[in-house]
## 1
Amino acid sequence: MRGMNDSATAPRSVTAMTEDELAALFKGWGEPAFRATQLREFLFRKGVASYEGVTNISKKLRERLAAEAPLYELAYAGGTAGDDAHKWLWKARDGALIESVQIRVPGRLTSCLSSQVGCAMGCVFCATGLSGFERHLRASEILDEYLQMWGRSGEHSSHVVFMGMGEPLHNYDEVIKAIRVLNAPPPKGCGIGARRITISTVGIPPGIKRLAGEQLQLELAVSLHAPDDETRARLIPVSKRYPIKEVMESVREFSRKTRRMVTYEYVLLAGVNDSEAQARDLGGLLQDHPCKANLIPFNAVEGVPYKRPELEAQERFKAVLERFHVPTTIRFSKGRSVDAACGQLRRRSLA
Ligand code: SF4
């Protein structure tokens, strides 16, 4: 495996250590244990790109930390800023490239995070899905994405969405571990309200049921993309394992236990899933629980043979869903100006 040796011998980053582990490190250096709280509090409250910005610790100690306990695991590998989005690229210690995006809409800045390198779900309209799965991200790497975007841009995101590369519920434990830090108040974490954190999934029933049992008020977005198993299996190969009936049961359980309104995402592909009959079937599935639908007209992806439906077909689909009393929005692209690649279909649902 690439870079495995480097990654095994590299010093652990602050984001990979618990507060106790960091306190033990300081004690081992003859420093008071409370330095750990001091450092984490600064990191989670201020947003810094490097130790230079950690001004509540002496320069000498910062230099030792930089050599023996780096702040972050991920290295900056590039970025592109556009009008409505800023795409960031990070290099992991094993050489893997990870993408994150900050997306701006009036009054809101959202950090769109990746949860895996590649993705195993294989959605046929997605660039990442077409290139396969490489590995899960660790919680510390996910946290790095958020903190480094903040530190480097100087702008604190009010919201977090797991809509980058990967299926977050396929990497359940590490994603939840990262969310608990993002959600906890400083010095334990970044203090982002759970209702401002969205997990976007293709619909993995065991993961949705587990999520329903966490004591977290997260937002859930489910990509349905078709109201029947046959069409859905064509678009999302992994859905062959999880029939729509099971997905819907797990979402209703989530909705019942958390009392959260679920969002359904539906990418509209001309001639594939945009007929009136399919809109009626979808309305039938969604009408019995609190939810809303985001229709995402497909935007061309290189090497993908699907087309965007005409405006009239988009509006007709929306009108049918509204007859079933499902609040429905047609979403427009966010992040196109920086060619935000994978998960781009999902990111378009942000507004
Ligand atoms: S759309 Fe999302 S779940 Fe589907 S392959 Fe792409 S990254 Fe994976």
## 2
Amino acid sequence: MLRLYNTLSKRYEEFQPLNPPQVKMYFCGPTVYDYMHIGHARAYVCADILKRYLRLRGYDVIHVQNITDIDDKIIKKANELGISWEAITEEYISDYFDMLNKLNIKVHIHPRVTYHISDIIEFISDLISRGYAYIAPSGSVYFEVDKYEDYGALSGRLNREEWRQEEEYLSEKKKPYDFALWKAAKPGEPYWEAPWGRGRPGWHIECSVMSSKYLGTQFDIHGGGQDLIFPHHENERAQSESRFATRPWVRYWFHVGYLTIKKEKMSKSLGNVIFVKDILNNVKPEVLRLWIFSAHYRTPLEFSDEGLENAKNLYGRLINAVSTLKKLIVEAKPTYYLNDDEVKLLSKLNGIREGFYESMDDDLNTPKALSYIYELTRFVFRDLESKPDQVLALRAYQMLLEFNEVLGILDKQLYGGINEEIISKLIELIVTIRQRFRDIKDYSTSDWIRSELMRLGIRLMDYKDSTKWVIEL
Ligand SMILES: [Zn+2]
């Protein structure tokens, strides 16, 4: 039975979804005003590990992760650069998708805030009419925290003094801890029309709206980085439980710890931010994933070259284990009998598998699970390679397939024939060769290469200084 730590109860709880085998999970995604940094990557990979493990356990998981594409920070950046806010968001949304792809994270639904403005207005209108929210003279709308009796329970802040937020609106809020649902537009800012005036949604309301739209008014898991507990998740909970009159709105609150550099939290204000796109110039995405896997999701993860180096070595070892097993399976003779030693080895393998599941069941103890994965590689190199046996090799291979359902770093080795990376590199090589012909004005050869590639479903597009390609199947 899987146990998860629940931020709301501050206890480990047995995981029991509302409607098994379905599991509905909402995770807070990025505000797209900059490239994805490795702290975000950690949160998204941990959400992915949770989803993958639930799937391995037989649950049917639906994973929603939003994109905040309108926000003060986006407007500020657009003004600084003198470009439109839409241009900012398109740039960083494309980075976000690119990085998720590289990290092998597949999210089912990616709702964008600006595509849900009418849903947001409807939600706020309902809160106003039920007396949970009020319209200020500026046209901004605030949630009246005193109307919700369980405020502070999620973050453990039980003293009103600790609730203060959005100090810039103190003059028009009833209480210093009320927060904005809708922000009236200042001159020159993007806005949408609402019954109470022009403006844009506050940050917290978005997640209440988009999660309920896709997952219903009660769902199983809500997650995010630890820094989102207050005020973001506290506010989401207050809004949603007030509007839907359901409690708990969310059954399990899942929060991922900080990523630290020299023991300090990575943040823009400290100037110690590392972008994923930059680190991937030197580190394979699989290694980055494995490094994140090597720490428990709730503990701080300290960034270090040594940590990445260890992950790189282990990744190499895993790839080696896969190819050794493939070879052993092909070369080994069929087995009609297991001697006593081999029976012992088979039960050793089963013990490793049990250890992996027990560790993951224990609030996703990935470092411990990883020690069992390491144990499996030791089994391959020590026990199996010296005395190949088909039964044991097949069993070990099947276990690696299972573990990789969560790890997500050995897809190419386990499933692939020729891997995609090699195919891409071969196409790039052909494109370069074609360019050489174009440089010497041998257009008949370069056109021939283009049309032959087209016949294979690879279309080339020539730009001024480069040629791009797409596979059209
Ligand atoms: Zn959120």
